[in-house]
Every structure is written in structure tokens, then in C-alpha cells.
Specification:
Elements lengths: L1 H38 L3 H12 L14 H4 L2 H13 L11 H11 L4 H23 L3 H14 L4 H56 L33 E4 L7 H5 L4 E9 L5 E10 L5 H9 L2 E3 L1 E3 L2 E3 L1 E9 L5
Antiparallel strand pairs: 1-4, 2-3, 2-7, 5-6
Helix pairs in contact: 4-5, 5-6, 5-7, 6-7, 6-8, 7-8
Length: 333
């Protein structure tokens, strides 16, 4: 009897365990179903979110490049553009897209940038013919812009003194030519007025003669009528003789004195000299210097080797006296 009771109790405990497991499985299945049906977001919502994340953001249209674009560029960008301009031989023109402007902008951002400093020193000798060409072609405003640009790179470079002198001579020559043109035009207008006045006087005389001849005969003899005065030829203005200042054609830079370089000395020398009628330099002498007697000899030797187109006055070569200031700077080009 006792054994039977124990067997019944074991059967009841087994049934209870099985029932508990079954209930747990059902609860888990119900929870999974609830998550899938209620908590899990629908598939189309996930897809929309992914597509939204992958969709590129709309870009705002950038404004056109402004006039101060050099200020907005980085040093590396400016150096890259400067190298492109050098390769294309755009040294000082066009405005806003040339090597000197790019390098000057680099130094404005990084004053100790060696690439820009070295490049500007090398550009100066090659920029001078470009400015001279603008002067010779009569583009004086462009030449002034280019000189001002070079002055930003090295305001004390003696090359600027030469270029400014050439530009000043060209301006004077252009002004003289304009005055001569105005004078010739005034003479032409005066001659035309004189011719018109002569024609009016001749017509008045002819009219007076015809009036005086009418009472004598109905048809006056042709000899009684004075012939019309022949028109006077228009006076032509004489061709204007050429006038110009002396123009340098060969410039020899001065040699830096060895002792001055060793002593780290810098300075300037103002030289006065005569440009002869054949374009040579004579009577070169120092009129002022700072410091004195340090750079005098080098300046005289350099200026004495310069060559010019002689100055012209009414088309005749004429000797003139000029002054030039030569700068001596260590590392200044």
C-alpha cells in the first residue's frame, strides 16, 4: 500500500513539471508574437529610414568667385596657382591671376614663407621687360598697376626706380604729343575759317560788281564781271618732330662689395650722369649715399656700363643729365 502511494506521488510530481514547462513555452511564444506584431517596427518604416540616411543632402548653390578670392585661398592653394602662372609666363598680368600677386598674397598670410620670397626675387629681372612692353605700347595705366604690384613685393628694389622713370618719360611724351595734336587741330580749324571768310568776301565782291553793272547794259560783258577768287589751299600743319626722354636699353646691376656683405651692411647711392647723343653714359658721379664711400665705386661702375636710347628734342638726339638711386640690400633681389 505504501509503495503504491509513493508511485502515485511520483506520477503527480512528473505531471506538474511537464505542465510548468508547457506553460513557460506558451508564455515565451506569446511574448515573441507580441514583439513581432506590436513592438517591431514595420518593414517599410525601416526601409524608408535607410533610404533617408543614404539620400544625399541637398547642396546649396555656391556664389560666384568674389573679387577678394586671393584672401580666401590657403597658402598651399596660392603657391599652386603661382606655379601655374609662372609656367604660363603670367608674371604680373592679368590683374588678379599672375604669379606676383599670388606670391604677395602668400607673404601676407605667411611673411616668412621662403618659397614666395625666393620666387619674387627671381621674378623681378623678368618682370621688368613686361612692364617696359606695356610702356612702349602706350598702356600706361597697366604699366602703373604692374609697377605698384612689384612695389608690394619689394618697395626698395632699384629696378622700380628705373621703371618709374620710364613710365614718367612716357607720360611726358604722350602729354607732349597730345598738345601738339591739339595745336595742329587748332591751326587746321583756323585755316578753314580763313578760307571760308575769303570765299564769303569773294561772293560779296562778285555780288557788288553784278549790281553795279546792271544800269549800263542788260547783259554785261563778261569782262565786266570780276572772276571769282580762287579758293586758297588749306594750310597743312607741319609734321610734329619727335620728342622723348632718354630710355634705358641695357641695365647692369651693381656688384655687392665683398666687405660690405661680410659686415652685413646695406644702403643706397644716388648717381648723377650724362646720357650722350649716342646713348652712352659719361661723367657718372655720386651726389649722395648712405653710408658714404661704401657702395660708391660699385654704383659708378654699374651705371657707367648702362646704355640708353638718346633723348630727342624736335627729332634731334640731345645729351641729358639724369639721376638714379641704386639700392644695395642683402637678399633683396
Amino acid at each position: 500500500m505504501a509503495l503504491h502511494i509513493r508511485s502515485i506521488r511520483r506520477s503527480q510530481r512528473g505531471a506538474t513539471t511537464t505542465t510548468t514547462i508547457a506553460i513557460l513555452v506558451i508564455v515565451i511564444l506569446l511574448a515573441a508574437a507580441a514583439w513581432f506584431l506590436i513592438l517591431r517596427p514595420p518593414q517599410h518604416a525601416v526601409t524608408a529610414a535607410v533610404q533617408a540616411a543614404r539620400k544625399p543632402v541637398a547642396t546649396v548653390a555656391m556664389p560666384a568667385v568674389s573679387a577678394n578670392r586671393l584672401e580666401t585661398m590657403s597658402v598651399d592653394q596660392l603657391l599652386a596657382e603661382a606655379r601655374k602662372a609662372l609656367a604660363a609666363q603670367r608674371l604680373v598680368a592679368p590683374a588678379g591671376d599672375n604669379a606676383v600677386e599670388y606670391y604677395v598674397s602668400v607673404l601676407a598670410k605667411d611673411p616668412k614663407n621662403r618659397d614666395a620670397q625666393g620666387a619674387l626675387r627671381e621674378i623681378f629681372p623678368f618682370a621688368e621687360p613686361v612692364v617696359e612692353q606695356a610702356v612702349n605700347q602706350g598702356n600706361l595705366d597697366e604699366a602703373q598697376r604692374e609697377i605698384d604690384l612689384l612695389a608690394k613685393a619689394d618697395p626698395n628694389n632699384y629696378t622700380l626706380t628705373i621703371l618709374r622713370a620710364k613710365l614718367d618719360a612716357a607720360r611726358k611724351l604722350a602729354s607732349s604729343a597730345q598738345q601738339q595734336k591739339q595745336q595742329a587741330l587748332a591751326k587746321q580749324q583756323a585755316a578753314q575759317q580763313q578760307q571760308l571768310l575769303a570765299a564769303q568776301q569773294a561772293a560779296a565782291a562778285r555780288q557788288a560788281a553784278e549790281t553795279a553793272a546792271k544800269p549800263v547794259a542788260e547783259a554785261p560783258h563778261p569782262a565786266a564781271v570780276p572772276a571769282a577768287a580762287a579758293p586758297k589751299p588749306v594750310a597743312t600743319a607741319p609734321a610734329a618732330a619727335e620728342n622723348r626722354d632718354a630710355q634705358i636699353t641695357r641695365m647692369v646691376p651693381p656688384k655687392y662689395p665683398l666687405q660690405a656683405a661680410r659686415d652685413n651692411q646695406q644702403g643706397w647711392v644716388e648717381v648723377e650722369f650724362t646720357v650722350t647723343t649716342d646713348g652712352r653714359v659719361s661723367n657718372a658721379q655720386v651726389v649722395d649715399a648712405q653710408p658714404r664711400r661704401v657702395f660708391d665705386r660699385a654704383a659708378i661702375e654699374a651705371v657707367s656700363r648702362w646704355q640708353f636710347k638718346p633723348a630727342l628734342i624736335n627729332g634731334t638726339p640731345t645729351a641729358v643729365v639724369l639721376k638714379r638711386k641704386l639700392e644695395f640690400k642683402l637678399g633683396g633681389g
